[in-house]
Amino acid sequence: MTDAPRAIIVGAGIAGLTAALAMARRGLPVRIYERAPELTAVGAGLQLSPNATRLLARLGVLDALGDRAVRPQAVELKKVDGLSPLARIPLGAEAETRWGAPYLVAHRADLQSALLQRAQSESLIEIVTGAFAEKAEFHKDGGVRLRVERNGAAEEIHTPLLIAGDGVWSHLRRLVRTAVRSRFTGYIAWRATLPVEQALVAGNGALEADRVTAFMHPAFHLVAYPISGGAAINLVAILPGEVPLNAWAQDADDAPLKKVLARASPALGRLAAADGASWTVWPVHAVNPADAWTSPQGLALIGDAAHAVPPFAAQGAGMAIEDAVVLANFLALHRDNPASALAAYEAIRKPRVTRVARRGAFNRFTWHAGGPVAFARDMILKARSEDALMADFDWLYGFDADAPENL
């Protein structure tokens, strides 16, 4: 059986790499096993609100990300009917002053590259690719016995702590839960990117290159924002539907999507049908945050493995980053008692993630509302000041996972 560092992380995504960096910051050595032979990112854009960027800055990741991330100047909510603005939430310098960190939008590949660059520069972090964590079980003497297949050979590793950052379809989740499968929400996310000038021309005034624009309609909502240093616009349309497989980035016939968007708005229809808009469909899955995240025998779930939340609050990456930092902080605080660290991590994170999930559910309900509910929503949004709208996010964006009260 192979010796291992005090912790092994399975999965080199956002959650796993952030956890490794946060542990290295606390002087804790860690090894990452990643199934892919090479670290390549999937997906398109993501939003990084101040609760996440303040932590990435302390880990040196924002410096590595550089100008590939964009600082939008506002979030603007629009009705698809007439494309009239209903509300504007200032971002940019005003948001950074209020919440103490920037609001950024970026391509997922750029964030993962920045995380990987930082991780590879840390002597306490070892990254092993092409390694499939085939089987895991708790050891009778404590810790976890992990069977890893790599280069056609298998080895067994005994680690005091296993951190599962293996995503929404985690197979390590079964160690602490009886219901291990994620739940399909009934929604699918269609994603595409367009060169910024092409998107602006196709949208014909429907969107701007310096902000996050959310278009609301009873049948769907569409979010657009700049990525890749402002060179492209990321488009995400979320609507009810079905997909055949539990897999990201599936190829599918996008004709139904284009029909729905064109019927709702000619401008959005042009965006959907623009040359080069290659739409990829992603099933939106959820994992119940109320179920167990940890075992005192030596297992912690982080990110989507613990609590995949649908993207209606744009906090999937943010919650994974917070998880990683909080877990590392407790492991450092309770170096000689990892069971106490795991219990504290789960106890403090569950209420936070549950509240975020509820906010996402509220957003989905209001953004997809029709009839009298939509009328009331519109009246409320129009009546509220920008400062009042910003205040609604103080609990979310102003949160500091590193603060003493979170230890």
UniProtKB/TrEMBL annotation:
Superkingdom per UniProt: Bacteria
Q: Which InterPro entries match?
A: FAD-bd, FAD-dep_Monooxygenase_BioMet, FAD/NAD-bd_sf
Does Flavoprotein show up as a keyword for this record? Answer: yes
The record's keywords, sorted A to Z, are: FAD, Flavoprotein, Monooxygenase, Oxidoreductase
Q: Which organism encodes this protein?
A: Nitratireductor rhodophyticola
Which residues constitute the signal peptide according to the record? none
Q: Which PANTHER family match?
A: GERANYLGERANYL DIPHOSPHATE REDUCTASE, MONOOXYGENASE
One term of GO molecular function: monooxygenase activity
Q: Where are the transmembrane segments?
A: none
List each copy of the FAD-binding domain by range: 7-359
Answer yes or no on keyword Flavoprotein: yes
Q: Which co-factors does it depend on?
A: FAD
Name of this protein = FAD-dependent monooxygenase
